[in-house]
Amino acid sequence: MVPRRRRVYATRWDRMVRVQTTGGDPYLLSPAEPEAFVEAVNRMVLAQQELREA
Fold first, then answer.
1. The pTM is what?
2. How far apart are CA 39 and CA 28, in angstroms?
């Protein structure tokens, strides 16, 4: 079993967002507005899914 690598780009742990990629490697980020970041990512992912289904 290959251990997963973590890529840490978080500068503030109180704003950390963990992003799990399709390759299995998580990214740790700390955007200025975590809630807005998560909402934007969700919108982008949903839009891509809709394009694939069309």
1. 0.67
2. 16
